[in-house]
Amino acid sequence: MARAIELARGGFPAPNPRVGCVLVRDGVVIGEGFHDHAGGPHAEVIALSRCDSAKGATAYVTLEPCNHTGRTGPCSLALIEAGVSRVVFAVRDPFEKARGGAGALLAAGIAVDTGVLEEEARAMNHQFLYSVEFKKPYVTLKAAITRDGFLARPDGTSQWISSEEARLDAHRLRAERGSVLVGRGTVLADNPRLTARIPGVVNQPLRIIVDPWHRLSGEERVFDDSAETLWLDQFHGANLSPEGILKILDERGVRGVLVEGGADTLRRFLTLGVGNELVLYVGDMEFGEGLVWDGGWGGLKDLELVDRTMFGTTERQTYLL
Q: pTM of the entire structure?
């Protein structure tokens, strides 16, 4: 199961869960796989495809095998047809549409065990599990700031505060969350693409643009055809409070969102307590004056710092909200 959890960290399957599978027979691993991207084959199917026969094998899976047909068939049926004799999974699937695999396996005469390394498997798959259980996306707030706490200079310029290594890590966050949100001001100031430009990304994150008065032209780069864009305004009855936005995203099946700012957008989420974690990329420079990253919120001292990691000359700091 530890190996299955390790495998599950591969790929960018959002909005689907991270899942790893290891097939073992007579103490020997005969096949393994993980769910790489939404729309692609699931972990169990990949593992089965990598062995000549799984008859009599035990399957170790990080999440209860799905029991429904979506873009792919049910993994429970694939395991039954392969002739496995036992399935061990770490976490029961909370998603109502997909769960029920354990019952199908038992009905087919296959032994089923659950709860093995459950805590570790839940931590690895925290975004999906949180989203399904609380019916809203897992929210990461992110900003690149100077050592003295500025998001940009007084004239609004900011490139590049963070190192190239840190920017690649931020692209990984976009892909892991599966969507990225900015306000109109960021689109006008930076004209970003908001894509995840790193190896291994099959499905680009959904780009969410909050533009209450629909003042953008639609010609900006976030509206190109490199990824899907959701343009949110008030004219179509959208509630654009942070909680209202999360409700819209949940209804679209979004499991995670990376809120990239700027300062006004970050402050709105922070002051209303909407979010799960805050990621700051602290660059090795000082501006002395300029745009304060949190819009003057000033609550960082009350947050729990859970990780510090260096990416080149930039330190990534992760706080729980």
A: 0.94
- DSSP string of 100-111, one letter each residue: -HHHHHHHTT-E
**Sheet hosting strand 277-282, strand order edge to edge:** 229-232, 206-210, 179-183, 256-261, 138-145, 277-282, 314-320, 304-311
Catalytic residue (one of 44, 64, 260, 315): 44
- Short-list 66, 120, 55, CA closest to 97: 66
Beta strand ranges found along the chain (DSSP E)? 20-25, 28-34, 58-63, 86-91, 111-114, 138-145, 150-152, 179-183, 206-210, 229-232, 256-261, 277-282, 291-292, 304-311, 314-320
- In residues, how long is the chain? 321
Reported as a single tens digit per residue, the pLDDT across 202-245 is 999 999 999 999 999 999 999 999 999 999 998 877 899 999 99
C-alpha pair distances (Å), 115 with each of 14, 35, 63, 121, 160? 24, 20, 10, 9, 46
What whole-number distance in Å separates Cα of residue 190 and Cα of residue 26? 57
Q: Please confirm, yes or no, whether 120 is among the known catalytic residues.
A: no
